[in-house]
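R.M. (postdoc): so does anyone remember the format we settled on? I'll just put the structure tokens first.
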């Protein structure tokens, strides 16, 4: 088996408030393989977002290690983490974080201006089915369209990894399927490694592997023998 793109070992995260300790992660071991789509399931507070933030260099582990390819991510300085995020990772969150005064094209172009070998903004928008909406402002787009602009913005810098935290959480099922189709296409055509957090158990059907979190631990890990296409997802 090839070296994992991410490898976490004995990962622990503790938040302290005075004398009170809250364990968000309790000794998590996880490997993500290059090109796979992984879904992270579990209730709120089970540690999914904390893990994703540590993998993406947005947060620090209390103990344990994370390796990105052959480098120890948990040993990086803040400056090195910033460069890591810029060069290797695309983020998609539940809320779109688009700049209201910029068009869809301009929102994507902001990322391409600071990337080493980016796509053209129109190419990224075409990948998510928004070729005809490039000149529209966020207020002129539906929620699903805004989320797809956010996905286009994430992929425009050609990241090796996309980390998605509840990308369909604010959407109805019909619109959510359009967003999943965009993510599916990016994973299939660009071979971008993806980790997707969701509360929706139906989304597990599109993943290569599913990790179920409970109380800061991975309670279950399973491989999908047959991945469903987004249109086949049973919401």
């Amino acid at each position: 088996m090839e070296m994992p793109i991410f490898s976490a070992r004995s990962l622990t995260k503790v938040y302290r408030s005075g004398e009170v300790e809250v364990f968000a992660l309790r000794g998590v071991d996880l490997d993500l393989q290059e090109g796979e789509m992984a879904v992270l399931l579990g209730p709120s507070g089970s540690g999914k977002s904390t893990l994703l933030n540590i993998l993406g260099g947005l947060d620090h582990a209390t103990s344990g290690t994370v390796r990105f390819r052959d480098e120890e991510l948990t040993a990086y300085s803040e400056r090195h983490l910033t460069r890591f995020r810029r060069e290797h990772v695309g983020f998609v969150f539940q809320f779109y974080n688009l700049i209201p005064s910029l068009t869809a094209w301009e929102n994507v172009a902001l990322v391409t201006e600071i990337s080493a070998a980016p796509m053209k903004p129109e190419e990224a928008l075409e990948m998510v089915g928004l070729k005809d909406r490039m000149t529209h402002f966020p207020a002129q787009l539906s929620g699903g369209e805004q989320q797809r602009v956010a996905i286009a913005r994430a992929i425009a810098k050609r990241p090796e990894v996309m980390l998605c935290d509840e990308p369909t959480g604010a959407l109805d099922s019909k619109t959510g399927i359009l967003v999943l189709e965009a993510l599916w296409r990016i994973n299939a055509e660009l071979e971008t490694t993806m980790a997707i957090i969701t509360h929706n158990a139906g989304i597990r059907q599109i993943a290569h592997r599913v990790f179920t979190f409970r109380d800061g631990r991975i309670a279950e890990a399973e491989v999908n023998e047959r991945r469903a296409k987004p249109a086949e997802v049973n919401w």
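R.M.: ...and that's the designed sequence above, right after the tokens. Also worth knowing: The chain has one domain: 34-60+86-232. The CA atoms of residues 128 and 182 lie 5 Å apart.
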